Amino acid sequence: MLQPQELARALRTTAERLEKGVRYEWGHVGRCNCGHVVQTLTDLDSTQIYRAFGQELTEWSEHARAFCETSNTEVEGLFRTLHEAGLTHQDVLHLEYLSDPAVLRRLGSANLELRRNDPSDAARYLRALADLREEARAHETAARPVGQLA
Known about the structure:
The protein is mostly helical.
């Protein structure tokens, strides 16, 4: 599993790529919010991610609901990559729709509506998620008894 700071770095790298104009398409599993995070975490491009999905599932949220850790299909491997990076099924659902209440609060308002098909909104969300993950790790470390390692 990646360390929280590595996940945060990957989220920020993805945000930077989105802001620099990388090809983004919310309706494409390899070029959407989750697809771009997977690209950052792996050596896969959007076409390889798309092929791994096959014809059965067309959205990350569908896959998160249907995930089975033991099937060993290509798409399961992609989901395992996200899980090993520290993202849960629920995190993936929120990432696809930019909807995690804690991230939205971090951005200034729990009622903030981010456009899931806007790369600049996705970048803002990814940076806020990275900040929250790093802060949670810092609080965990501060609360750990002296002498215990991570």
